Amino acid sequence: MFPRYRADYRSLLWVAMAALCVGITYAFPKLAPWLLWLNCYLALCCGVMAHNHNHCPTFANKRMNRVFGNILSLFYGFPTYAWVPTHNLNHHKYVNRNGDATITWRYSNRHNALVAATYFFVSSYFQTELTKKYLKKARLQNPRLFRQIMMQYAVWGGWYSAWLGLALALYGLKGIWVWTLASAIPAIFSLWTIHLFNYEQHVHTDPWSEHNHSRNWETRTVNFFLFNNGYHGAHHENPGLHWSRLAGAHRELRAHIDPRLIERNGMWWYFIRQYLVAPLFPRLGSVQVGRAPFDPPDGKPFQLASADVELGDAGSNAAAVR
Fold first, then answer.
1. Which of 68, 106, 113, 273 is the most buried (most CB within 10 A)?
2. Whole-number pLDDT of residue 318
3. What's the pLDDT band for 142 if we cut at 50, 70, 90?
4. Angle of the 113-141 helix axis to the 143-171 helix axis, nearest 10
5. What is the pLDDT of residue 119?
6. d(Cα 306, Cα 294) in Å, to the nearest integer?
7. Strands 216-217, 262-263: parallel, antiparallel or unpaired by DSSP?
8. 208 with 291: CB under 8 angstroms?
9. Who's near 78: CB < 8 A, 6+ residues apart?
10. Quick one: pLDDT at residue 258?
């Protein structure tokens, strides 16, 4: 009934705040525009927590973990099981190389606003194949897992439908606006931003390198409000490690990481520099570190592959791959 790590009491608090914020938006619809960005931030946090939860389950009890995964999906914007085939079992295995459905360089290795803004649509499209394969394999080989996934879809879809129905019952057609600001936009924001984070963490990094495969943010505020998501290199090298311990793991790796992949001045300055300043002063933008993802060290001809998936519960397969 209790989290395995004390730090996850903060995770539970953030989830409670997400629910409270949605409730306040419904109770006081005039506040909806003012609460929009708070709802968006908390939905994004639920996405980050879903990522953490699928690598290192929050509770010792499997049933509690399934319940928590369902709750996170209500705010994150999509059933959280999808992290397993697309992220745990695919992205962590290939890390922006051939076979990774979330590669940052599928059509271009340029790092600009257009590629970053459209990455969500490209990445989502190619991840769909993995989720379809995962569902088909679960249906044929693990009916229990398949029922759990279908339940997550039912809870997720039922939640958004119920909140829309409640908004319509309370406020008539104006309720659509309340529901959009309280639930729909935050969910879209969460999904789009989670994909953007993945793009920024791997674009122009060296997937062939032992330590230079990820970009990192060291700012304390970023890592506090995003549950240490900035220590991405340490996460890839210790995927089963609880998020609260990533700062220490990053300190141990820091000397081995190319300084160009360590952002010390915050995430906001990074985005301003890359997308507003670098177009005018290109030398301030990112450059490819080491080998490009499409330039394998063995020199063999490159062909983009589509990786198969294996069945696995949250957190059970992550530690086996980088």
1. 68
2. 42
3. very high
4. 120
5. 98
6. 15
7. parallel
8. yes
9. 156, 187, 191
10. 97
Interatomic CA distance for residues 3 and 132, integer angstroms: 32
Chain-centroid distance, C-alpha 291: 25
Tell me how far apart the alpha carbons of residues 224 and 276 are, in angstroms, rounded to a whole number.
26
H helices present in 172-302, as ranges: 174-179, 185-202, 220-225, 232-237, 246-253, 267-272
Whether 167 has a pLDDT exceeding 90, the answer reads: yes
Q: What is the C-alpha to C-alpha distance for residues 230 and 212, in angstroms, rounded to an integer?
A: 14
Q: How confident is the model at residue 1 (pLDDT cuts 50, 70, 90)?
A: confident
Closest CA to 42 of 168, 173, 186: 186
Nearest to 144 by CA among 71, 62, 86: 62
Confidence of residue 295 (pLDDT cuts 50, 70, 90): confident
Cα(216)–Cα(115) distance, integer angstroms: 20
Taking the CB of residue 84, how many other CB atoms lie within 10 A of it? 28
Written as six digits, the tokens of 170 are: 């309370």
Contact 101, 307 (CB under 8 A): yes
